[in-house]
Amino acid sequence: MTTRRCLLRLLPAAWLAAACRQEELPSRYRLPEQPLTVITSSVQAADLVRQVGGEAVAVRSLIPPEANPHLWQPTAADHAAIRTADVFILSGLSLESRFQEDLNALRQGGLVVGVLANGLAEEDILQGPAKKAEPHFWMNPLLWAKAATEVGAVLAEASPPALSWFADRAHEYGTELARLHQELARRLAVIPARSRFLLSSHDSMAYFGKAYGLETRGLCPAGDAPPEKPSAELSDWTADHQVRTLFREHFTPAAAVLPLSRQLKLLGELPIFSLSLAAPGTRLPGASNELKVDSYLPALRYTAEAILGRLKDE
Fold first, then answer.
1. How far is CA 274 from the centre of its chain?
2. How much is the pLDDT for 58?
3. What is the 8-class DSSP label of residue 213?
4. Contacts of 197 (CB under 8 A, 6+ apart)
5. Which of 89, 100, 36 is nearest to 61 (CA)?
6. What is the share, in percent, of the chain residues with pLDDT greater than 70?
7. Distance CA 309, CA 311 (A)
8. Average pLDDT of 237-257?
């Protein structure tokens, strides 16, 4: 007679792993037998899916860390990866403007497609030059919490029995993001009024500025390389407000912005994270402790601490 142990030996290892995980979870949770294969466009979106999906997802970003997402040009391999996934998630607001595939056609082919910006209200979205929507809304953690809720709904569409798992984790992560926002708002409030002017290498800090009461400017649009010389308007703005620091996107070489810094009479530059995240395992010293800046929360904390540390003394 076949014993239970013998029978278990005949079952696929992945099924056994899923069954063991399920036994360890509260009864209200039903994880998919196999983790959902999720492809995202950006590293920020991939990090968000990991936070919400946990062990119920296997995630990969098509845009690598330390890369400008505005310059992403999908390859044939990217298109193939999307079509073999269970879920495809984009950020939206034209961040992936070079991705030209019809999302409705992908959905009709059986792929679950999510757009994080669909979780925002119209009044959440800032308008940039030429009245185009600013796409960098993850720089406001309260808006990223809304994106977490959107991720939970998209993942639940792909695996309806796991709805409670995704919804609860989205809520928990959203609560963590709200706590971070409250902390940053309290700490950044000490920056004096005369110093609440933030210059970054790329025009990607508008949502951060609105969230924390800072007026922001960028040397160039987020998808462009720094120009050879600053505009007259930017030169006047930095002079009028006695701006002394350039906050440089971490993947932009310091040498690329040094000539501009000299022309604007800036005293220094500091790296920040707004367009991407660091390579896996990267750690940088923060104000209070060392931060692993390859995921969203510590990268945002690092960025806020760098800004606070410089502007409060200017």
1. 8
2. 98
3. T
4. 214, 215, 216, 217, 237, 241, 243
5. 89
6. 91
7. 6
8. 94
pLDDT number for residue 11: 42
Distance CA 208, CA 141 (A): 9
Phi/psi for 214 (5° steps) reads -115, 140
- 84-113 pLDDT, tens digit each: 999 999 999 999 999 988 999 999 999 999
Domains and CATH numbers, the chain: 27-184 (3.40.50.1980), 189-311 (3.40.50.1980)
Supply the pLDDT for residue 9. Answer: 40
Chain centroid to Cα 309, Å, comes to 23
pTM score, whole prediction: 0.90
Q: Which residue is listed with tokens 């987020």?
A: 222
Nearest to 114 by CA among 69, 141, 148: 148
Closest to 199 measured CA to CA, from 270, 253, 135: 270
Mean local confidence (pLDDT), 159-184: 98
Are 296 and 91 contacting, i.e. CB atoms less than 8 angstroms apart?
Answer: no
